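CORE FACILITY INTAKE
Project code: CF-77B
Contact: R.S. (postdoc)
Sample description: multi-component assembly, two entities in total
Requested service: structural model of the whole complex
Turnaround: standard
Below are the sequence entries exactly as provided by the requester. Do not edit them.
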Amino acid sequence: MNSPAMTVFKKEIKDALRSRVTVILIIGLSAIVLLSLVVASFEFRAKVIDYQQYLQSLKQSGGSVTDLPPQFFPLQLIRSAVEYLEIIGAIIAIVMGYGLVAKEKNRGTLRLLFSRPIKSADVSVGKLMALACIWLIILVLLSGVMIGSLMIIGGVSLSGTEVVKLFIFAGLAWLYLFMWSVLAMALAGYSKRLSTALVICLVLWLSIVLIIPQIGDTMDPDNQVPGGLFKSLQVDKLHEKAVLAHFTGYETARNLLEETSLSKRFERVSFAYLGIKDEFNQKPLGFIWKTKWPDIATLVGATGLSIVLAIIFSKKQKLLRKEYS
Amino acid sequence: MSTTTISVNKLTKTYNGQMAIEDISLNIQQGEIFGFLGHNGVGKTTTVNILTTLLDLSSGSAEVCGHDVVKDSMSVRRMIGYLPENVQFYDALTLHENLAFFARLSGISKPGDRIREVLQFLEFTGFEHQKLATFSKGMRQRVGIAQAILHKPEVLFLDEPTSGLDPQGVKTLRESIIRLNKELGMTIFMNTHLLSEVTKTCTSIGILSGGRLIYHDSLAKTLEAFPGRDSLEDIYLSIGKQF
């Protein structure tokens, strides 16, 4: 099939795979994510070995096990990977999306492109398809290596549901990273000056990925003490809820603030599917969906809006504006 | 009987209220090599950009091969080839990959044979699998010509094609342009300020000054009309002084 959009798509994939910057960024991101997972897998394995040694020494001393065995949830080991994708992944996604338009503008190849009998939408759709495909390949590979790492290094066997949950997380990560890339592409198309687009992208990244979630975290009293305020005060869940009931207005405001950040929404829904948040751990998929669908819908909506903007701002007149004014 | 290939009627373009070109009217016949002369910044590139559908016009009209550049831009693009000034390509891709990309965008689904044919015509074989990052300016201009003629256009627009080339590069390019016109019958619209090239290449000229077309005639008639002048440069300066 050789539609103009498909031709642009194939060219972009080739160009990306041969771009040293893109390859280094992708390898860097993958390395960080995998390293976090490998470290977590080793820690997990060490905990299992510690527990087994404890059991053995207990047996040898003639004692019997009275404590419940500690619970190990392998998907929780992906926590750091989620955070790296959320923060570093977003900035790499911006660089990739921005670069797709900026390179054409800087090189002056847009004039050649638009002197051909193709529509502006073919160019933008081809580029969007390339971004979608690049992130899909990265996340499918990362998911495979995550499963392998958990099984081989962590020594755990994952249930079918856990594998599904991991792939749902990979799908959410794809949506989140694709959204950032498309938004950067749209802004690079919209801005007359490329440097302005880059500044806007970085301000958005700082606000959505770092500043808003940080304010939200700082407003959470439980985050003020390492290990959690209530745990350190040895307050159980029931009493914790009773205390927090007195601060519902404050908690609602904090929650609303966090919800303005797409990164926080991605983190929340990922933590839910991976069981990192206690209230979602070992819960069925339907339960998580019922509670978390607004976060997923927001991510889908933001991605859709970014795609519309990217198509609108990739019109010939907009893209060539800098050169002819 | 020759037919009009490019027809421009009272073409005007303003940028933010500033006049770039004003009331340009001209007809270029099939098979001509038209040299569009003028100092830097007088509106030559703006005119080419409008004729190649890259830029919207403010008023007036223009047709290429009978197709309106505004109402029927896709048909115009199918009929034209375009070599911009300081042409750039995708440096990470090879010559063949670059040409295949532009050929497919022009509707050639299996461009391999056509690419070979074009490169042979331009006597530019042996570099197909080299990345464009390694190409010199002169080689890039030839790639530019190759991409512009892949789809056998009727009209070729060249914007300062000899800009930045060494004498050998200029000669090679000039020969290619003349062969494209003589052997393939292409009409050529060439922006330039190299008068020596116009004398050797063009069949007609137009002179643009302050965004207005101040002169348009065949090269032969121009040389006849100014008998006391030794070169086109003298004629150009003489016409320029009158306006």
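Facility notes:
- Chain A has one domain: 4-324.
- The mean pLDDT of chain A is 88.
Invoice: internal transfer
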